[in-house]
Design goal:
The structure is a homodimer of 222-residue chains.
Chain A: E1 6-8, H1 17-31, E2 34-40, H2 46-57, E3 63-69, H3 74-81, E4 85-90, H4 99-108, E5 116-123, E6 137-143, H5 150-153, H6 155-160, E7 163-167, H7 179-189, E8 194-197, H8 206-221
Parallel strand pairs in A: 1-4, 2-5, 2-6, 3-4, 3-5, 6-7, 7-8
Helix pairs in contact in A: 2-8
Chain lengths: 222, 222
C-alpha cells in the first residue's frame, strides 16, 4: 500500500470566493480536467459510491479524489486500497471547503494529469452547500436510511446541486422512504436536478450514473 | 392539532458563550429544569428517539422539545402529532445553536414549568459540537447505516458528549457495522461516555436509555 498523502488546508484569505471559484474553473479548463464536488451528510456513502463508480471509470478516464475530512484518513485509505488515486485533506475543524482550499488539494494531484478530479467534501448538509469550490458539477447523495424529509430540512443543498444520487436503495424495504415525496420536494427547489437511484453496495444503478458523468466529461473536454 | 410555534433565532452578540452557557445552567437550576442537548448527523433518528422515549417519560415527568432546524417544521409537527410539547426554532442558515439561542427557545416553553427540556440540535456532526448550549447532558446519536467510522472522522462530537446512543440496531444485519470498532474508537476519545444500543423503530433498548435519563433528572432535581 502506498503511503497516504495528508495535507492540512490553510484557510483562504480571499474575500471573494465566487470570483476565485471562477478562476479555478479556468485553471482546470486549461488542464482539461473536469472537477466534481460530492456532498452529503455523514455516512450517506460518498466514498463507497466513488469506489463503485471506479469499475466504469477504469480504462476510460484517469481520475483522482481529494478526500476532505475534519480528521482521520480512513476514506483516503479505503480509496487507495481500491487502487484509486487520492489525497487526504484536513480542514482543521472547518465544515466546508472553499475554492482556494479545493485548489490546495488539486495541486497535490497535479503530477497525474487527470481527466477528472472529485472532491469528497466534509460530511455535512449545511456549510458545504454555501461555498462554490470551483467545481463543474455539484453532486449530492441522500441515503435511504436518512429519511425522505432531508430536502425539506436542508433546502440549500438540493437547490445548488446539479445531481441527486439516492443511495442504499437495497435497504428501501427496511425504511419508510417515500421516493415521490423526495422527488416532489427536490423538484420544487430545483426543477432541473438529475436524480439517480443507486446502491453502491450491490452496484444497482451505478452504471447509469457513471455513464452520465462520463458524458459530462466528454462534453467538457470536447 | 395545535398550531406549531416557529421562532426565528437571533444570532447572539455575546463574545463569551462559555460564560453565558454557565449562566443559562444557573437560570435553569432555579426553575429546576434539566436540559439535554441532542446532536447527530442528519437522519440518525433524533426525533424518532425522542418520540420513543416519551412512552417512558409520560406520567413521570413534564417535558418539552426545542426543534432546531435550518428550515421547515417537519420535526415539530411529528412531535406535536405524538402529543409532545414542542417549539420549532429556525437558525437562519446557521449550523449550530449557542447558549443564547438555546435560551430563546427555552423562553418559548416557560409557561409549561417543565422538568426536562430537550434541544434537538441541527443535524450536523461538526458545528454543534463546538458550542456549549448550557445543557446539563450532551447526547449524540449514531445510526448503524451511517457506518462505524464516524468517531474517527468527527472526533470532537464524541469527545464532548456524555452519552452515545447507537440507533437503528434493527438494521445491523443489513450493514457492515463493527460495534467493537466504534466502542474502542469512542472510548479512546472519551473513556467515560455512556453507550446505549437502541432501535427507536422497534423500541429495543429505549427503556434502559429512558431509565438512565430519568435517573439523571432525579439526581439533578434532588
Amino acid at each position: 500500500m502506498e503511503k497516504i498523502t495528508i495535507i492540512e488546508l490553510k484557510e483562504s484569505i480571499l474575500k471573494d470566493n465566487d470570483a476565485d471559484a471562477d478562476k479555478l474553473r479556468l485553471e482546470l479548463k486549461e488542464k482539461n480536467t473536469y472537477f466534481i464536488n460530492v456532498m452529503s451528510a455523514p455516512g450517506s456513502g460518498k466514498t463507497s459510491t466513488l469506489t463503485a463508480l471506479d469499475k466504469y471509470f477504469k480504462g476510460r478516464i484517469k481520475w483522482g479524489v481529494i478526500e476532505a475530512d475534519i480528521d482521520s484518513d480512513v476514506d483516503a485509505v479505503a480509496l487507495n486500497n481500491a487502487g484509486i488515486i487520492s489525497v487526504q485533506a484536513h480542514t482543521g475543524g472547518m465544515c466546508h471547503l472553499d475554492a482556494d482550499m479545493a485548489r490546495q488539494g488539486i495541486r497535490q494531484l497535479d503530477g497525474y494529469e487527470l481527466d477528472l478530479i472529485v472532491l469528497e467534501n466534509i460530511g455535512n448538509l449545511v456549510c458545504p452547500a454555501e461555498f462554490d469550490t470551483g467545481a463543474n458539477l455539484k453532486l449530492t447523495i441522500l441515503s435511504v436510511p436518512e429519511g425522505d424529509d432531508k430536502p425539506a430540512k436542508y433546502p440549500l443543498m438540493y437547490e445548488v446541486s446539479d445531481v441527486l444520487v439516492i443511495n442504499k436503495v437495497d435497504a428501501l424495504a427496511a425504511f419508510d422512504f417515500d421516493k415521490s415525496r423526495v422527488e416532489s420536494d427536490v423538484r420544487a427547489l430545483n426543477p432541473d436536478i438529475k436524480i439517480f437511484y443507486i446502491s453502491a453496495k450491490t452496484g444497482e444503478g451505478v452504471e447509469e450514473l457513471a455513464a452520465y458523468i462520463l458524458d459530462k466529461i466528454r462534453e467538457y473536454r470536447g
